[in-house]
Design the sequence.
């Protein structure tokens, strides 16, 4: 067998162009379904793992997929807000911990997740440098954000402006980096965390005041006895500092301060069931079980995947037939060579052995290439899964 | 079995026929007795279609007689299974074809070693075979061409590779089927001398089919295939 293997190898090596094309065809035909399958598996695992860890999500009535994807994976969405007083009202029951979530803003393209320290504890986020963002205007960075932006504790990060023509809010908020979290392989790695009060500053609902000395008179809009109103052009950004922190205050009813959603962490399964029933029965909010929503979503995704599996199967089958034709034609072209080997004393099935082994060599190399390409694809595209 | 055939080749009472197909004449070859000693060289002559190639194929075990005895190097080929005959052929018989039939994707050294490869030689056998191949290449004058593929060799160089391939297993019998048919007269003469010299040097019996009657005086015997049925080999 080793002699026939040698001849098969030398024949394949001598006909490099033909062998390379065959290997490329088979590798491509394998790579597509393997990569699709592996990506789908990773999606499934990553999505379910995050959903399984989260007992309940509460938000405004509307699309439950949007609510779940926003609360779990920080996907941008236009969620109706929930007044903060709803969280306080629900919390009066005492058997469920509620975690506020506000996710309307971004900083250099990364979602700003405004929440409370309970979120950090619930998700098990550990600072690898610095500390949690506890004070107004502070942020703690997910591992990928810190790496991508090259930020460390003590650095500053500007929020992305949202509404340039709204003079009631600052164009951007300069936030201090308090800490960087250890990588978790979840969407938390791609988020910027801050206290929920900081989000309300970003909303323009809360603001501070600065001393009016030394202001360019051309930017003064009006002067009163105890204050000066200036043009928005004066400030490129707002910043919470030790000097002005105490001047920050809310305008309007603090009970109506907006949240995007809440995570509910019941003490028991029963408490969770009771809460979900009560919330959904009342109708002014909706409570969803992430596992059920994600299962629904994956059902759709996997029906699409089944279609792609079918297409991949046809592709593989077609490639197999074409490769068979190439080897069949090759065997005819090699008739003289096989007759010579037969006359020299090669085993009876040397022809089949030679062509079969060459096919196996092509399949092995193509399989190894497709496996490597699949691994490389999964490695190069981790964000597809971790950030959904 | 005679003492001659124990080391050489013997055909006795052999009968072989092709089953006639539509539109073709039936063919039959009978050999009463043909014995070749080790180191003996015989030329096979006869008109086209008289059975020269069939005789070569019977001696190699490529064809199986319907009756009779064929021995090569003391082994009764007619009693072996197909797989055993193939193994014996790769071990005991060296073949040189008219078209040389080298494998175009192997270099000269690899072509010489093909008989060892196809019989599944061990690493040790291959190592020894490689040494013999190098010596043979030196003997036939292609030592510096071993890395070349057949496409980069001249007709004469290809034939020398084919001769080395036939001898690399140190066979008991070397069979040549018109090996000079594609060479000019000078080259043909040199090739026959080379095959005779190398076969004799290795004490191998040699049976060569040839149409070139000018070369016959170099052989120990000349066998007219048309006389094999009754008179045995025709000795010169």
Sequence:
């Amino acid at each position: 067998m080793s002699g026939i293997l040698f001849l098969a190898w030398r024949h394949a090596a001598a006909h490099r162009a033909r062998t390379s094309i065959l290997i490329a065809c088979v590798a491509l035909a394998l790579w597509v379904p393997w990569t699709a399958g592996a990506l789908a598996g990773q999606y499934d695992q990553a999505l379910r793992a995050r959903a399984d860890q989260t007992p309940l999500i509460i938000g405004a009535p509307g699309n439950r997929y949007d609510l779940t994807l926003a609360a779990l994976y920080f996907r941008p969405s236009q969620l109706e807000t929930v007044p903060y007083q709803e969280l306080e009202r629900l919390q009066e029951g005492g058997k469920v911990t509620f975690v506020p979530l506000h996710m309307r803003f971004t900083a250099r393209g990364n979602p700003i997740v405004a929440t409370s320290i309970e979120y950090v504890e619930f998700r098990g986020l550990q600072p690898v440098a610095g500390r949690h963002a506890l004070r107004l205007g502070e942020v703690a960075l997910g591992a990928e954000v810190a790496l991508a932006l090259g930020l460390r504790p003590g650095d500053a990060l500007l929020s992305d402006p949202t509404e340039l023509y709204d003079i009631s809010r600052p164009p951007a908020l300069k936030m201090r980096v308090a800490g960087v979290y250890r990588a978790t392989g979840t969407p938390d790695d791609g988020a910027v965390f801050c206290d929920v009060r900081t989000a309300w500053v970003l909303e323009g609902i809360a603001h501070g005041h600065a001393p009016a000395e030394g202001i360019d008179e051309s930017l003064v809009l009006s002067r009163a006895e105890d204050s000066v109103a200036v043009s928005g052009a004066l400030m490129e950004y707002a910043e919470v500092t030790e000097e002005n922190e105490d001047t920050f205050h809310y305008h309007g009813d603090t009970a109506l301060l907006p949240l995007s959603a809440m995570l509910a962490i019941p003490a028991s399964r029963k408490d969770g069931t009771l809460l979900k029933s009560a919330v959904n029965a009342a109708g002014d909010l909706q409570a969803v079980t992430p596992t059920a929503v994600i299962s629904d979503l994956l059902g759709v995704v996997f029906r699409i995947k089944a279609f792609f599996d079918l297409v991949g199967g046809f592709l593989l089958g077609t490639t197999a037939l074409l490769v068979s034709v190439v080897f069949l034609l090759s065997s005819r072209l090699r008739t003289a060579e096989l007759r010579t080997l037969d006359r020299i004393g090669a085993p009876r099935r040397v022809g089949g052995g030679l062509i079969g082994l060459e096919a196996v060599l092509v399949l092995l190399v193509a399989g190894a290439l497709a496996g490597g390409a699949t691994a490389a694809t999964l490695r190069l595209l981790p964000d597809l899964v971790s950030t959904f | 079995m005679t003492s001659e055939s124990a080391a050489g080749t013997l055909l006795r009472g052999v009968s072989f026929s092709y089953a006639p197909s539509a539109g073709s004449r039936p063919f039959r070859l009978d050999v009463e007795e043909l014995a070749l000693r080790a180191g003996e060289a015989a030329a096979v002559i006869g008109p086209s279609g008289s059975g020269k190639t069939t005789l070569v194929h019977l001696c190699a075990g490529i064809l199986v007689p319907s009756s009779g005895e064929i021995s090569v190097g003391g082994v009764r080929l007619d009693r072996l299974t197909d797989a055993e005959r193939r193994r014996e052929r790769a071990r005991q018989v060296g073949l040189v074809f008219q078209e040389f039939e080298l494998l175009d994707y192997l270099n000269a050294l690899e072509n010489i070693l093909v008989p060892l490869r196809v019989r599944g030689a061990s690493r040790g056998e291959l190592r020894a075979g490689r040494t013999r191949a190098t010596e043979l290449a030196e003997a036939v004058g292609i030592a510096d061409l071993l890395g070349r593929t057949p496409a980069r060799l001249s007709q004469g160089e290809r034939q020398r590779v084919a001769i080395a391939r036939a001898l690399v297993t140190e066979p008991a019998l070397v069979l040549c089927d018109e090996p000079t048919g594609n060479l000019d007269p000078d080259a043909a003469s040199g090739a026959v001398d080379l095959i005779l010299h190398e076969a004799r040097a290795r004490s191998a019996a040699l049976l060569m089919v040839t149409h070139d009657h000018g070369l016959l005086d170099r052989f120990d015997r000349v066998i007219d295939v048309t006389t094999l049925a009754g008179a045995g080999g025709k000795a010169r």
